[in-house]
Amino acid sequence: MGGKITCTLGEVKNRADFIVYWGGNPAECHPRHFTKYTLTQKGKFVPLGRKGRTMVLVDIRETPSAKAADIFLQIRPGKDFEVVTTLRALLKGQRIDPARVADTGLTLDQLQDLVDRMKRAKFGVIFFGMGLSMTRGKHMNSGAILTLAAELNAFTKFVCMPMRGHGNVTGADVVLRWTTGYPFGVNLSRGYPRFNPGEFSTVDLLVRGDNDAALILGADPGATMPQPGIDHLARIPTIVLDPKVTHTSRLARVHITTAVTGISAPGTAYRMDEIPLPLRPALTSPYPTDEEVIRRIRQAVARKPAWAPPAAVPTAS
Amino acid sequence: MLRITGGTVYDPANGVNGVVRDVCIADGRIVSDVEGGRTIDATGMIVFPGGVDVHTHVAGGALNFARGLVPENQRVARKFLHAPGRRGGIGGMTPTTFATGYLYAGMGWTTVNEAAVPILTAKHTHEELHDTPIVDKSCLLLMANNEIVLDLLEAGEVERARDVVGWLVWAAKVYGVKAVNPGGVAAWKWGKNASALHGPIEGYKTLTPATIISGLAGIVDDLGLPHPMHLHCNNLGNPGNVATTIETMKLLQGHRAHMAHLQFHAYGGDGWETMRSGAVEVAEAFDSHPNLTADAGAILFGDAVTITADGPWQHMLHQLTGRKWGNLDVENETGCGIVPYVYRDRHIVNAVQWAVGLELLLLTRDPWRMFLTTDHPNGGAFWRYPEIIQLLMDAEYRKEQVRKLPEAAQSRIVLGDIDREYSLYDVAIVTAAGPARALGLTQKGHLGVGADADVTIYPAKPAADGVLFSYPRYVLKAGEIVVEEGEIRAVTDGREFIVKPAFDDRIEEYLRPLFQKVYTISFENYPVEIERVRGASVVGVRS
């Protein structure tokens, strides 16, 4: 188990005849996803556009995205792992007791129908949202659905992709990987990168109160973190770089207003499929860019004497 | 200004074979003489041109995908502590960018060629190459499954395909053209492969891998790119693929081409049960095609991470091993697959693979055409090159290793019967002079007047680990001492070599509407801005 079978969104546009959204509400959260990439576009090998594609939505409630779906499968909250695992078993031709499936909210017939359709697809794709990856089971759910997509490749072409959001979170993930080897939850306190999600990820550090300062860039944890984490941010020196006033900036010791990247500052954003896109500013801003602020902080820090005794500081020569 | 004095110099491009002489450096280049400046006493040491890696995977979307896929490898990998002027990082199979620069330089290699760049994510590759310090870089564009090019080749519109390739090379700001499993990756978009050179490719009526191979090689020659088409043949890794490889060589008659990681394409037999070395046949065929160069793609026992644009092969390897599998198809252009792998010396197939890489390096007659690589990180990490050099230089040691292999493997290889030993001169050819020449980098791989002052000075006797080339005494990059006694002394920014071929500008009018139909980003966002390629050095095309 493990791995990730994926593609860029153009592959979906050009080829996908079977599209599953799982634990997400793209109609409201990624409103251009249907029209730019997945459903309504005519693709090179899907000349009929929407008519040439089947869309399935799996979720715990009937969101506005259900209107776009050909098939809506409503599952019980917290049953994603059980449903995915049952699909994997059906894919391999295992016998399933219908009674044991009942508490997922779906019938065995519905699940068998989904598996049959997946196998019949010419090019299938599963997009999964935080309704799958951040609910009971968490990374186990992500692992299970990625494995399902991988195993479907024994029958047909199938890919899988998380529905990433929150601005340029993919870009942060990409850059951290090439600079530290890890995508998030990186600890540099020993002078080299260490990775342990659950220990070094932001939410865990804040809730435990491990860090004694915070520099926050392009995020608003004051709006999304658990209360103990927010309380800790208010307790320690927190510095926020943000173009606007946010929940976090209100509790921060320092708020540096910066230019808006993509509107009044240049940069690069990575799309959810890791394609880099250049951002070209249309306006100018009286405020500095994030990059400029960070560079000046770094220069100022470099001028300060080391905090450790000189003998403990490694040198370049 | 700097003078290296007393060292025994090996500079094959200038016919210098173990002569004690001074090497003088000024303004980052080799000069005939200098007055004053520092002197390095290299008495009792050997002086080589800085190493040149003709085929490696060190940057870009695929490698970065692999980094994320194998945190368990990073955890046990060598650590790099940050220090003033030096970034922290991680070594291992898929090193972080900064560590990649330190590891190559630490081994005495000063130029690397990243061998697989999709156009759509070329911006990412250039960002990573910029973050790879010290070494100079070049990179190659994936082209043999680009559907716009393939459609033109099927329609027989070679002229227009030539302009498209020229436009794409400049748009992506790369140095050359790579062809991976021609047609096979396009077929993989439908879950198929292209294994017959003369059979039509899935999704096409008449187009065959053979048409792509000869068509693209011709286009690259026509555009006058300094490096010929860089080819990863069809049927990589499959027992019996010798036939495909030899047939491909015939298709390339009349063109220049570089055949990548030939080890993976030199297997005999007709299944895993009967798989044996096909190195003798491949080496013989290769020797009779002076238009070709190749690199070994040798494997070493131990951990590896296989990363290739060859998606169908990776699915096969995943099914074969049950290891985790990453796959990323890039719209209209290419794909990539990743499977972590361990080469085991008790495993017959792995043992044969190990032998085939060395056999190719030893059986091919002209070291100027067969170079040292491991197809990093596919056959093993690049920082293990010194282990391969040791196997090439010492026949007795090599035979000792062969005798440790399972008997079933020994009967399927010829390595045990080969007595050839590489001289230091040969080593300098396969690690520096040869690859630089194949890449068309005239200022690299030699120590003649005017060359870049990239120099590696090794002790004449092996270091504590018994491997001669593992610890250079000094490494100079552009005349600056970057490594001394295994310590990074200076972190410099390398350059990036790119080419601007001539093409008809009007091709953009042809590409724009096509692009907007099948891609999902705007045409204006497709080309890499020249400002993004920091340290760009434009190399002229061949006349």
What would you note in describing this structure?
The complex is a heterodimer of chains A (317) and B (543). Chain A is of the alpha/beta class and 317 residues long. Chain A has helices at 9-15, 26-29, 33-38, 80-91, 98-101, 108-120, 130-133, 139-152, 169-180, 202-208, 221-224, 227-235, 247-251, 290-303, and strands at 3-7, 18-22, 54-59, 71-74, 123-128, 157-162, 186-187, 194-195, 214-217, 238-241, 254-256, 267-270, 276-279. In chain A, α4 crosses α6 (108-120) and α10 crosses α12 (227-235). The radius of gyration of chain A is 23 Å and the shape is globular. Chain B is an alpha/beta fold. Helices cover 32% and strands 23% of the residues of chain B. In chain B, the strands form six sheets. In chain B, strands 8, 11, 12, 13, 14, 15, 18, 22, 27 and 28 form a ten-stranded parallel beta sheet that branches. In chain B, strands 3-2-7-23-24-25-26 form a seven-stranded mixed beta sheet, with helices on one face. In chain B, strands 5-4-1-6 form a four-stranded mixed beta sheet, with no helix packed on it. Chain B is globular, with a radius of gyration of 22 Å. The model of chain B has no long low-confidence stretch (mean pLDDT 95). The interface between A and B is large, with 53 and 65 residues.
